[in-house]
């Protein structure tokens, strides 16, 4: 009788176990480039884990520093394996999570997310567009500071990285929460900035 119970429990465990279906960053990059990508990619619907099989994300891992517009930037990029923002998410990714420290010309801290939890940095990766890695950043959301960040290491010098921020134009602005919107300057530059790997 004990053996029957063990076999039944084992069988139930096998039936309830759902195997992880692995796709690659390259497959999802190719999907994004399809003319009808807004309709989805039916061939990728069963994938539960998007893996960095060629280690393309490794080039970004580390601490990067640079200056722009009188501000000092320190950006720490970490590669996360099989990452889910919430345990209930159906899809997990290999991705870059970023943390940012920004100081003014006097060394005063303007922004610091270095000690935040992974799901609270509001700076995370999506996927590649050829050599460029696309991330998303949210700073002062009350002033509509949210958008895409594009990073790319230089082909002939992997210790130099270009960063470009494209601020979203959509959103609802509440003047009471951002009274200085007309003079508000985003944390990240909307022109290309060079960062050096430390």
What labels would you give this structure?
mainly beta; eleven-stranded mixed beta sheet; DUF6705 domain-containing protein; DUF6705
Could you give the topology of this structure?
Layout: H1 2-16, E1 22-24, H2 25-32, E2 49-51, E3 62-68, E4 71-83, E5 92-103, E6 109-112, E7 123-129, E8 132-138, E9 146-153, E10 160-167, E11 193-197
Parallel strand pairs: 1-2, 2-5
Antiparallel strand pairs: 3-4, 3-11, 4-5, 5-6, 7-8, 8-9, 9-10, 10-11
Largest sheet: 11 strands, mixed
Query: Number of helical runs?
Result: 2
Structural class: mainly beta
Mean pLDDT: 87
Contiguous low-pLDDT stretches (5 residues minimum) are 3-17
Fraction of residues in β-strands: 35-45%
Return the string of H and E elements: HEHEEEEEEEEEE
Radius of gyration: 21 Å
| N-to-C CA distance | 64 Å
The tally of domains stands at 1
Helix content: 10-25%
Number of strands: 11
Shape: globular
Detailed description of the structure:
By secondary structure, the protein is mainly beta. The protein has one domain (2-197). Helices cover 12% and strands 39% of the residues. It contains 2 helices and 11 strands. It has helices spanning 2-16, 25-32; strands spanning 22-24, 49-51, 62-68, 71-83, 92-103, 109-112, 123-129, 132-138, 146-153, 160-167, 193-197. Strands 1, 2, 3, 4, 5, 6, 7, 8, 9, 10 and 11 form an 11-stranded mixed sheet that branches. Strand 5 and strand 6 form a beta hairpin. The radius of gyration is 21 Å and the shape is globular. Residues 1-155 form the DUF6705 domain. It comes from Chryseobacterium oranimense. This is DUF6705 domain-containing protein.
């Amino acid at each position: 009788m004990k053996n029957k119970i063990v076999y039944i429990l084992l069988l139930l465990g096998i039936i309830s176990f759902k195997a992880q279906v692995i796709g690659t960053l390259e497959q999802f990059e190719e999907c994004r480039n399809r003319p009808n990508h807004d309709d989805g990619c039916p061939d990728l619907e069963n994938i539960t884990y998007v893996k960095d099989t060629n280690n393309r994300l490794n080039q970004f891992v580390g601490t990067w520093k640079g200056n722009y517009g009188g501000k000092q930037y320190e950006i720490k990029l970490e590669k996360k394996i099989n990452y889910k923002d919430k345990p209930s998410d159906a899809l997990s990714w290999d991705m870059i999570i970023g943390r940012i420290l920004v100081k003014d010309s006097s060394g005063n801290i303007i922004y610091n997310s270095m000690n935040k939890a992974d799901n609270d940095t509001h700076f995370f990766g999506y996927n590649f567009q050829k050599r460029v890695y696309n991330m998303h950043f949210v700073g002062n959301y009350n002033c509509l500071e949210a958008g895409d960040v594009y990073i790319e290491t230089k082909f002939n010098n992997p210790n130099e990285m270009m960063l470009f921020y494209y601020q979203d134009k959509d959103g609802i602005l509440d003047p009471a929460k951002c009274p200085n919107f007309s003079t508000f300057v985003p944390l990240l530059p909307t022109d290309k900035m060079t960062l050096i790997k430390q």
